[in-house]
Predict the structure.
Amino acid sequence: MLNEHAIPHTYREYTQDPLSEAELRSVLSKLGMGPREVLRKRDATKHQISADLDDDGLIAAMAQHPRLLQRPIGVNGDRAALGRPIENLLELK
């Protein structure tokens, strides 16, 4: 159970305060992933985001439509982890 391993954190309401393109690039770098690896494909289809977009286009789309980004993502300094499964976030402790 994750609660017994609680990690102090600050929650960012990504729909109200979406990440900028620069922030997305930083998070992707910390994750060691490209935008396709964190793209929610169903939401991309819903927003008619083409799979043919290059990385810059996908990052711009994610900045405009924050629900395209898989979540949660935890960031601690120069490290980040995608919380799927949620236990991945324990790596940031």
Observations:
- The first strand starts at residue 73 and ends at 76.
